[in-house]
Specification:
Blueprint: E1 2-6, E2 15-19, E3 29-39, H1 41-47, H2 53-56, E4 67-75, E5 85-89, E6 102-106, E7 110-112, H3 119-123, H4 127-139, E8 147-150, H5 156-167, E9 171-176, H6 181-186, E10 191-194, E11 207-212, H7 217-224, E12 226-234, H8 243-248, E13 253-255, H9 263-275, E14 282-287, H10 291-299, E15 306-310
Parallel strand pairs: 8-9, 8-11, 9-10, 11-12, 12-13, 14-15
Antiparallel strand pairs: 1-2, 3-4, 3-6, 3-15, 4-5, 5-7
This protein binds NADP nicotinamide-adenine-dinucleotide phosphate.
NADP nicotinamide-adenine-dinucleotide phosphate binds next to helix 1, helix 4, helix 5 and strand 9.
Length: about 300
């Protein structure tokens, strides 16, 4: 099968095209013939030796990627049959091995792909959708009427988080630069903040919950506008070590979460996609042969919605 291995941490030249034998599946797993893969900042960070590289660096061959959609070709699980169309985030934060024609995936990390969405849209609704869902539903437990601020609302996590928060009945504000304002409002956000030059100190403490996708100074900015007794989840690794203490000093609960593979959560996301409550936005699609270009695009930090690679 075609696959892309990471020879060693570094630049995109280290992503090498190889032929490998198809993976064999163990009890509880299915073999998925991959149709689409979505790319995340963690793919790029891990390729460069950060992200989850430390957890997987001794694997050989080392295959990056976690987000897949595809068709079940073999099964050792009663959850899926051959021919089922599935999607999910495989083995995160471990070795997902998604940059390949075939992926061995634990059945309990997948869900059936809704018939009304494409393989590209399904692949785009895995890691970022699980992150948004786990943050808003399991951790923050967002309630109807709450005031929610989503940073980088035009990005992968943010654009899904806006839609899930709206679905939960929250009043949602999203941040991005001015060029993405219309996109953020089109997701259902009630209002928009252009983060360039915004006066956070004078804005008032109005938010019950903040999803921080930026880290660093953005934590301080966010706390200026979070109500006492509110909460903030900060997700970018390496840029949020101080979130808990900074939040505490403002009377706010602050913490980091790391998204986890979950078939149960994927089923919830599948039903949000099926009903149309959540619609992923795929802004760029690359063929498998252009994985390096897809990484360079993701690396710009300017992605609107998601970047997807197809096979
Ligand atoms: N802990 C976890 O489990 C977890 C899970 C998923 C993601 N993450 C991390 O969360 C971060 C975001 O991920 P993502 O996939 O959403 O990234 P992304 O798709 O690459 O985000 C790109 C978007 O960010 C916006 N942006 C850039 N700087 C901004 C700023 N200062 N304020 C507001 N918006 C800004 C850009 O809009 P403009 O061009 O308009 O600026 C762009 O649309 C990454 O660091 C990622 O590694 C962590």
């Amino acid at each position: 099968m075609k696959a892309i291995v990471l020879k060693e941490a570094g630049n995109v030249e280290n992503l090498a095209y190889v032929e490998l034998v198809k993976p064999t599946i163990s009890e509880g797993e299915v073999l998925v013939k991959v149709k689409a893969i979505s790319i995340n900042p963690v793919d790029v960070k891990s390729r460069a030796g950060k992200g989850v590289y430390g957890r997987i660096k001794t694997e050989n061959p080392l295959i990056l990627g976690w987000d897949i959609s595809g068709i079940v070709e073999e099964t050792k699980s009663s959850d899926f049959k051959v021919g089922d169309e599935v999607f999910g985030m495989v083995n995160f934060p471990g070795h997902g091995k998604a940059y390949a024609e075939y992926v061995a995936a634990p059945a309990n990390q997948l869900a059936l792909k809704p018939q009304n969405i494409s393989f590209e849209d399904a692949a785009a609704s895995t890691l970022v959708a699980l992150t948004a869902y786990q943050a808003l539903v399991h951790n923050a437990k967002i309630q109807e009427g709450q005031n929610v601020l989503v940073h980088a609302a035009s990005g992968g996590v943010g654009h899904i988080a806006v839609q899930i928060a709206k679905h939960l009945g929250a009043k949602v504000t999203g941040t991005s630069s001015a060029k993405n304002k219309d996109f953020v409002l089109s997701l259902g956000a009630d209002s928009h903040i252009d983060y360039h030059g915004f006066d956070w100190k004078s804005a008032g403490r109005t938010f019950d919950f903040v999803l921080d996708t930026i880290g660093g100074d953005n934590i301080d900015h966010s706390l200026e506008v979070t109500k006492e007794g509110g909460s903030i989840i900060s997700i970018p690794t390496g840029l949020n070590e101080e979130v808990t203490s900074k939040a505490e000093s403002k009377g706010v609960k602050g913490y980091f979460i790391l998204v986890q593979s979950s078939g149960d959560d994927m089923k919830q996301i599948a039903s949000l996609l099926e009903s149309g409550a959540v619609k992923p936005h795929v802004s760029k699609v690359f063929p498998f042969e252009q994985m390096r270009e897809a990484h360079l695009e993701q690396e710009t930090g300017r992605t609107v919605g998601k970047i997807v690679v197809t096979l």
